[in-house]
Amino acid sequence: MKLADLPTPCLVLDRTVLNRNLRAMAGHLSRLRVPLRPHMKTAKSIEVARLAIEGQSGGITVSTVAEAEYFMSHGIVDILYAVGITPRKLEHVVQLNAAGADIIVVTDDIDMAAVIATLDSPPRTLIEIDSGEERGGVAPDGDLLLEIAQVLGPALTGVMTHAGHSYAGRGAREMSRIAEQERGSATLAATRLREAGHEISIVSAGSSPTARHAENLAGLTEVRAGVYMFGDLFQAEIETHGMDGIAVTVLTSVIGRRPGRILVDAGGLALSKDRSTESAPRDYGYGLALDLLGQRSYGQALVRRAYQEHGVIEMDPARPIDLPIGGLLRIAPNHTCMTAAAHDRYFVVDGGDEVVAIWSRINGW
Question: Which pTM does this prediction carry?
């Protein structure tokens, strides 16, 4: 089967690029002597997970209980559910753990800590630390950290943090600084908890930009990263990888032609309406048009408008797109996590147009 045989729009995954991205991150963290616990919230695929954990400790990170259940059903049991737990989701986690999983949960709330502590067999629990993003987590030097730890008691296993504010960083030097801030917050929290008499075995941190640009990870027991596997235009702009690191694209058909622009059947649902590159050095609209083999044959041809099922590509005058109605091209996304979320499978290629596999995804919550 060829790409030309596929229905559009659909998701294309270049396994050659994926494997190169996986090797690059694994090699970098190996040099820093910290294991990788890959985050599967972007890929949501057992085939990708198996590639990502090869040579690692075997654990993964997820962002939904549905993902945890899916990966457990495929034999991966060491799972960090890296979203603040709620009482109802805790019940589901307890059931999965009783069935053989080892799902770790996260909280930054003292009342939720009390709920966890009342369980006969509570899951391993991490306290979330705010390392600068100001989204979730407690201050590493605050009193609440020790108060939550006291309530959790034996359920407490460690701490975790996510430097989401790294996405606002620009350049390797700034990313390295944010990575050190992230590491320092996590290790400070772990040190204070140990000094208070708690056993801390997990000190978890990570985002793809900080993992890629970190120079020192001493004190961390693991690093979490996810989007690095697939890459996207925004990650290329903030130097997590190069433009050759984008493994996932959307295959789309030409459905209309006008002077200087074409209409395609990939709109907001197929591409997402994420505009993350708007604040980056180069703005790629809603995506960059590539040829059928994923090459930049069309210069700066950008998706400038995204309706529900329609995308409008403005051509680069220096490199016009000469395709008939039904002609195929691929679009590199701004934010691959959001783009992939609307699709239920990957059509896998190895650098060409031959579809070598079809990998399913787990969506929903």
Answer: 0.95
The superfamily in CATH containing domain 3-11+241-360 is: D-serine dehydratase-like domain (2.40.37.20)
β-pairing, 102-107 with 78-84? parallel
User: Encoding tokens for residue 251?
Assistant: 């295959």
Per-domain boundaries in the chain: 3-11+241-360, 16-229
C-beta separation of 181 from 162 below 8 A = no
Does 164 have pLDDT greater than 80?
A: no
Residues in Cβ contact with 148 at an 8 Å cutoff, skipping those fewer than 6 apart: 107, 108, 109, 110, 113, 127, 138
Which distant-in-sequence residues (6+ apart) come within 8 Å of 360 by Cβ?
45, 344, 345
CATH architecture of 16-229: Alpha-Beta Barrel (3.20)
pLDDT in tens, 11-38: 999 999 999 999 999 999 999 999 999 9
Pairing of strands 302-306, 311-314: antiparallel
